[in-house]
From TrEMBL:
The gene is GLB1. PANTHER family: BETA-GALACTOSIDASE RELATED. One of its GO terms (molecular function) is beta-galactosidase activity. Its EC number is 3.2.1.23. This is Beta-galactosidase. It comes from Phascolarctos cinereus (Koala).
Length: 658
């Protein structure tokens, strides 16, 4: 979100009333005819339908089976979209599948972002140019290990709202959003000359508690209103009878999802309980699996995937490989599961294309398997992108978060008798600092208790002296010391909202009162911290800081500069950043939020740095927010390192010390 004029160019915000007349196509002149109308391909006789009698799809009247792969444009820089799509095409895929995260495009009510890395229309145009059909999954809920399953956090400003239901407030917001998105998508439908062959309505709704058929009917009518009667609309649910019973609706073609651990015969028999005729479809055949902080990196063998894929293709099934490339949860976009377990920055997924788009052994194994059923495209496969180990970058500690409050919260704090949640102070991501004073002397340690009301992690200090960490579902109380009137600070971090299940209404911050011994703490100053604008505009180099010496165990900013070597051709190249002896925090390169690092908990050790954010004309500014403990008490250890290989399976710790 950009709130300062100095950030012009970091994101483009479009008012709702301007969207209808702006399709973002003028910059693609080769896709316009003489009248200015969009031209993707001839619309003559283009049809895509379900042939129930033949148990198949018909494309232009001919039997058709798709073998597709999932790619999330929101997890891959626009700079690399074409490279990844070409690699998918060369693997033998004839289609791609992508989600549309609502919160990625409407960060604030009525404010829409469709440019740069959010330019969905350009992504669809690239797919079409490359010869890939598109399976579109616009939600409004997507799951996807994405913050709140793609739903915008501002929905929770209506405290009683029931998400993914026929709740009036929810339906109004959905109606507004899809009224913007779906008209943009209609020209890209296959029958209109575009690449979109099918459109999913909702996502795995049978796994949600509400089982609200009125909600599904509302969505069905809304999709038909905006997209017309010809497009194939479908649903996806886990291969469980009860899931399909709640997740499907007449007028929506029901499909299933399962991975290598599922029984293919049983999975498709379950689809047949709802769809006795029509094509067999596995909309999410898992090529790997997701990770969580503090848990082992997940992998699935190529052999198991090829065996199951071959079985499905031998039955004539349509299969989508989820994921074909996972990408990265840049910034604060990662989700979480319950019991609360946030996902890391990498969404590598052990997919056929790595997080950085590299060709893997799994890629070639799947390409060979697909080649037994479909003709593979001719020509060279785009190579893996080169990586460069730039080496160590010296860092220096500058200001603590507390010392930077005037920049991070220029409007000043909000006064409240009791704590307010992130949503109540309109802070949807990142950090909020809660401040009060100790109501009594605590010369001996006294328990500061949250009753598990810290969502998700609070860094506690008294008069600038670290006291400990409170963490959701892990650490509910710590002992603190101090004198009456001392300043008590809790820097609360949102680690990512729950994206699946009944707990997606995931409020962040101090959601319950805190007690000191038996005393309820009151009279809070609440500082919403605008990290993104501050880093874009002010804190990207050491010149912005006051450079006061600080305690290396307080949440603090550190800065360093990476100069790209001269005399070496083709630099800059992709790289990875790692944090030897650092603990946990956030990192920005030239103001670009790479995401969270947490080597103290694992398994992810390195963060992917795409080359398009690096420059050769000037030093690259690296800004680190270390939340717990840095190695910078020793100057020779105060560095980060740029390496040429990822480490996603590092050592683990789930203790409260990490």
């Amino acid at each position: 979100m950009c709130g300062n004029t100095c950030c012009v160019g970091a994101c483009v915000v479009v008012k709702a009333d301007a969207v209808a007349g702006c399709r973002g196509l003028a910059r693609h002149s080769h896709l316009l005819d003489a009248s200015g109308d969009r031209v993707l391909g001839s619309q003559a006789n283009r049809t895509f339908k379900i042939d129930y009698n033949g148990d198949q799809f018909l494309k232009d009247g001919q039997p058709f089976r798709y073998i597709s792969g999932s790619i999330h444009y929101s997890r891959i820089p626009r700079f690399y979209w074409k490279d990844r799509l070409l690699k998918m095409k060369m693997a033998g895929l004839n289609a791609i599948q992508t989600y549309v995260p609502w919160n990625f495009h409407e960060p604030l009510p009525g404010m829409y972002q469709f440019s740069g890395d959010r330019d969905l229309e350009y992504f669809l145009q690239l797919a079409d140019e490359i010869g890939l059909l598109v399976i579109l999954r616009p939600g409004p809920y997507i799951c996807a290990e994405w913050d709140m399953g793609g739903l915008p956090a501002w929905l929770l400003e209506k405290k009683s709202i029931v998400l993914r239901s026929s709740d009036v407030d929810y339906l109004k917001a959905v109606d507004n959003w899809l009224g913007i998105l779906l008209p943009k998508m209609k020209p890209y439908l296959y029958q209109n000359g575009g690449p979109i062959i099918t459109v999913q309505v909702e996502n795995e709704y049978g796994s949600y508690f509400s089982c609200d058929y009125n909600y599904l009917r509302f969505l069905l009518n809304l999709f038909r209103q905006h997209l017309g009667e010809d497009v194939v609309l479908f649903t996806t649910d886990g291969a469980v009878v009860e899931y399909l019973q709640c997740g499907s609706l007449q007028g929506l073609y029901a499909t299933v999802d399962f991975g290598t651990g599922g029984n293919v015969t049983n999975g498709f028999l379950i689809q047949r309980t709802i769809e006795p005729r029509g094509p067999l479809v596995n909309s999410e055949f898992y090529t790997g699996w997701l990770d969580h902080w503090g848990e082992a990196h997940q992998t699935v063998s190529s052999k198991a995937i090829v065996t199951t894929l071959t079985d499905m293709l031998s039955r004539g099934a349509n299969v989508n490989l989820y994921m074909f490339i996972g990408g990265t949860n840049f910034g604060f976009w990662n989700g979480a599961n319950t019991p609360y377990a946030p996902q890391p920055t990498s969404y590598d997924y052990d997919a056929p294309l790595s997080e950085a788009g590299d060709l893997t052994e799994k890629y070639f194994a799947l390409r060979e398997a697909i080649g037994k059923f479909e003709k593979l495209p001719e020509g060279p496969i785009p190579p893996s992108t080169p990586k460069f180990a730039y080496g160590k970058v010296a860092m220096k500690q500058v200001n603590t978060v507390e010392e930077t409050l005037d920049i991070l919260c220029p409007a000043g704090p909000i006064n409240s008798t009791y704590p307010l949640t992130f949503v109540e102070v309109k802070q949807y991501f990142g950090f909020v600092l809660y401040r009060t004073t100790l109501p009594k002397n605590c010369s001996e340690p006294v328990s500061l208790s949250s009753l598990n009301g810290v969502h998700d992690r609070a860094y506690v200090s008294v008069n600038g002296v670290p006291q400990g960490i409170l963490e959701r579902n892990k650490v509910f109380s710590i002992n603190i010391t101090g004198e009456a009137g001392d300043t008590l600070d809790l820097l609360v971090e949102n680690l990512g909202r729950v994206n699946f299940g009944s707990k997606i209404d995931d409020f962040k911050g101090l959601i319950y009162n805190l007690t000191l011994g038996s005393v309820t703490l009151k009279d809070w100053l609440i500082f919403p911290l605008d990290m993104e604008d501050a880093l874009q505009c002010y804190l990207s180099s050491d010149a912005a800081f006051r450079k006061s010496p600080s305690n290396s165990t307080l949440p603090s900013f550190y800065v360093g500069q990476l100069s790209i070597p001269t005399g070496i051709p083709d630099l800059p190249q992709d790289t990875y950043i790692q944090f030897p002896n650092w603990t946990k925090g956030q990192v920005w390169v030239n103001g670009f939020n790479l995401g969270r690092y947490w080597p103290a908990r694992g398994p992810q050790v390195t963060l992917y740095v795409p080359r398009h954010i690096l420059v050769t004309s000037a030093p690259n500014n690296i800004t680190v927010l270390e939340l717990e403990r840095s190695p910078c008490n020793f100057e020779e250890k105060c560095f980060v390192e740029m390496v040429d290989k990822p480490v996603l399976d590092g050592p683990l710790s789930s203790s409260k010390e990490s």
